[in-house]
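Sample entry follows:

_____
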Amino acid sequence: GLNPELVPEGRASAFRFVLKLYRMISSARIDLVHAHLFEGAIYAAIAARLARVPIVVTLHGQSDMQRAGYK
């Protein structure tokens, strides 16, 4: 089955947040990470890369596209 999990960033530093995501991906034996929004996708991409898991990113709206370098 599929159990999506929302991981709020909260007040953790960027390093601690990526570490938390990495541990979560590794311990749950995640096969694929799906991230939304530009900022969250950056953290998720780093954690997924460390865990050697593929990632899919969904950008929403013009502001996300501009942050990602699309005009």
